[in-house]
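Protocol step 4 of 6.
Sequence for Transport permease protein (Streptomyces javensis) entered exactly as in the expression construct, tag removed. Do not edit the line below.
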Amino acid sequence: MSALSLAVRDSATMLRRNLLHARRYPSLTLNLLLTPVMLLLLFVYLFGDTMSAGIAGSGADRSDYIAYVVPGILLMTIGSTVIGAAVSVATDMSEGIVARFRTMAIHRGSVLIGHVIGSVMQSIASVALVGTIAVAIGFRSTDATALEWLAAFGLLVLFALALTWIAVGMGMASPNAEAASNSAMPLILLPLISSAFIPIDSIPGWFQPIAEYQPFTPAIETLRGLLLGTEIGHNGWLALAWSIGLTALGYRWSTASFKRDPK
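Step 5 output, structure tokens:
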């Protein structure tokens, strides 16, 4: 077999291993999903009317805020789900299975590739679940064309890939699963200080740069524009640049850590 065929075969084996782990131990994924689902329900039903009036004017109702908040919740779901990748990688490293893999005749990169592809698949499945809940409580995207839906899906996959590689790097650098979970918490916290819940203009001036110059805000604005037909402006290019940059950074970090001989 060629080197490429071996890499594909071993990566598929590692992907199957990670998906089996996720199926046998679903509690981690479900716990990580709880945060975006609870925030969606909390902001829509508790703050929805007030937030709608603040964003769209006094004549707005809760449906206006549902339309505004769902794109941010979907991207928060990705940030929440990929924490599982950091925990899984740290667990493999601390329990010695990676050291065992190093002694076997398998493609070394397949271990990380299996984690990454498995995490991206779980992220998209989680987004679909949260999106279903959003539709059930009133979210509608009637103005999006088929091309815009395809672009939105591509953005979600690319952003999930970027955050997954960063999470894998965090897992490689952590001594245990608990430390990996803690180090990956910014992936949940950053959407809270973005344009996910309120417009950037509504944020205090001294805090606006933190909300604006981070990866979640342009990605949220791009997804919101694709799903609702609002103006995207330069956010599309910024979201693409952030995604590619984070993917490259996470890949280099993860592979360099993995190639380093264990102490």
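Step 6, annotate. Residues 109-136 form the longest helix (28 residues).
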